[in-house]
Amino acid sequence: MTENKNHATAAAILPLVGGAGNVTSIAHCMTRLRLGLRDRSLVQDERLAALPAVLGVVEDTTYQIVLGPGTVARVTPEFEALVAEERAAAPAAPPAPLTADGLTADGLAAQGAAIRAERKARNATPFKLFLRRIANIFVPLIPALIGCGIIAGFNGLMVNLGWLPAVTPALAAIATGFMALIAVFVGLNTAKEFGGTPILGGAVAAIIVFPGVTKIDAFGQSLSPGQGGVLGALGAAVLAVYVEKWCRRWVPEALDVLVTPTLTVLVSGLVTVFGLMFVAGEISTAIGDLADWLLATGGAAAGFVLGGLFLPLVMLGLHQALIPIHTTLIEQQGFTVLLPILAMAGAGQVGAAAAVYVRLPRNGSVRRTIKSALPAGFLGVGEPLIYGVSLPLGRPFVTACVGGAFGGGFVGLFNQLGDSVGSTAIGPSGWALFPLLAGNQGMGVMVAVYAAGLAVGYAAGFLATYFFGFSRQMLTDLNADDDTGTGLIAASGGPTPPAPGAPEKTPASL
After folding, report:
1. DSSP state of 502
2. CA-CA distance, 210 to 498, in Å (whole number)?
3. In this structure, what DSSP letter does residue 315 have?
C-alpha cells in the first residue's frame, strides 16, 4: 500500500514538472526532492503545490519539492524509475538508408552515427547495463587518478634526480592521498548509482581503509587497512543500498530518519568486516597474480589478443568490465600493465586512417575528415576516426584491429622479457599516456618501449589497411574526384551526375 502511494505521488509530480524530457538531474536531501530542469516555464506550480503529498516548493539552483522526512526517500526512487521509463519509451527516428550520396565524409559520419545508435540499442542487455553502471562508478574518479598519477610520476623523477628534497614528501602526500581513500569515493558513487544514499555507501566503504581494522580477526587472519580495496568497497556499498531500501520499505516513516541509516551502516559494516574484506581481498590478489602470470609467461600472445580485440570489446560494451580491474591493479601495484597494451588499439586506428587517406587521393571530403581527426587520434581519442571513417567502411576497422594486435603483442613481449610497462591512471591513451607511464624499469626504458609499440601499431595498421582494407569496387566507388569539397554531392545539393556515356556508380559494399 505504501509503495503504491509513493508511486502515485511520483506519477503525479512528473507531468507537472514538464515530463521526463524536462528533468536533467534528480537528487534528494532529508526532506526535499531536488530537480534540475531544462525549462522552468513548463512547471505547473499551483497544481504541484496542491498535491496532497507536497508540503511546499522551494526554488533555488534546483527546483525543490518538499515531501518531508522518510517520504522523500521513498518517492525519489519511484520518480527516477518513471523518468527512466518515459525516456526509454520515447521513439527514435530510424536512420536513413545509405545511398551513393553517403560516400562522402558526411555520409560516412551519418552511417557511423547509425552504427553507434544500433550498437547502443543492442548493448542494452541486463549484463551490459550492469557493466555500464559499474563504469559509471569508476569513470568520475578518472580525473583524480590522472592528476595524482602525473604528480606521482613527476615526484618520482625529482626523487631520482635528487631535486628539491624538502618538497618531494609533500608531493608524495598529494599524489597518494586520493589512492589511500579511493575506497570511500567508490562507496559514494556506488550508492548513488544503485539508488541509495551516497554518504551511507561512503560510510560503509570507509571501514575498509580504517586503520583500526588491524585489531579484527576474520577467517583466522588479522585484517589490514585497505584489504579488499575497491572491489570490497563496491560490494559493501551495494549491500548498504539493499539494506537501506529494505529499511525504507518496512521502517515507519516517523522512525525512518533514525533507524534506517543506523541499521544500514551497522548491518553492512558487520558483513564488510567479517566477510567482504577477506573475500574481496582474495579476489583482488588473484587479479594481480593472474595479470602478472599472464604477461610473464605469454606476454606477446596475450598482448596480441588484447590489443586486437579491444576495439570490438568497445563496440560490444564489454570493455567496461576492465575498469575495476585497472583500478585494482593501480591500487595494488601502483600501475596497471594492461592499459599500455590496450592503448595499441588506438595506434592501429591511426595507422588505418592514414592508409585510407593515402588510398583515397581524390576523395577530398573523407581526407579532410581524417586530417581533422588524426590529431585527436594521436592523443588517444579514437571516436572520430572509428565512427567517422573506419567502422562505416568496414574493412579498415578490421585492419585497424590488426594494427592494434601487433602493437599490443610488441608491448606484451617486453613484459614477458621482464620490462613491465604500466600506467598510473586510466583514461588517457596514445601520446597522452606518456606522462603516466610507470613500471619496474627506468623512465627511459618505459618511454622507449611504449613509443616503439605505438610505432609498430601505426605501421601494422597502415600496411594492413593499405593492402587489405579495400576491394577494387570500394576503391572505384570511394575514389570519386571531389574538387568542390562536397564529395559526391554537387554544389546544387543533388547527386553529382555521371559524365556523358559513363556508367552509373553504385554504393560500395561497406
Report:
1. P
2. 75
3. H
Of 297, 379, 302, nearest to 342 (Cα)?
Answer: 302
**196: which 3 cell numbers?**
541509495
Q: Which of 159, 164, 144 is nearest to 425 (CA)?
A: 144
Whole-number Å distance between alpha carbons of 491 and 485: 9
Residue 420: exposed, middle, or buried by beta-carbon count in 10 A (0-12, 13-18, 19+)? buried
If 0-12 CB within 10 Å is exposed, 13-18 middle and 19+ buried, where does residue 73 land?
buried
Q: How far is CA 347 from CA 302, 320, 406, 464, in A?
A: 17, 20, 10, 13
Assigned C-alpha cell, 148: 595524482
More confident residue, 499 or 429: 429
Residues annotated as catalytic (active site), given as ranges: 29
Q: What angle do CA 27, 28, 31 make, to 5 degrees?
A: 165
**3-state percent breakdown (helix, strand, coil) of the chain, nearest 5:** 70, 5, 25
Cβ 83 vs Cβ 466: under 8 Å: no
Cell numbers standing for residue 181:
581513500
Q: Please, which residues have CB within 8 angstroms of residue 459's CB and are 6 or more apart in sequence?
A: 351, 403
Rg (CA), the chain: 27
Task: Transcribe 196-226 into DSSP letters.
Answer: S-HHHHHHHHHHHH-GGGGG-EETTEE--TT
Please write the tens of the pLDDT for every residue from 43-93: 998 899 888 888 778 777 788 898 877 788 889 989 999 998 888 887 544
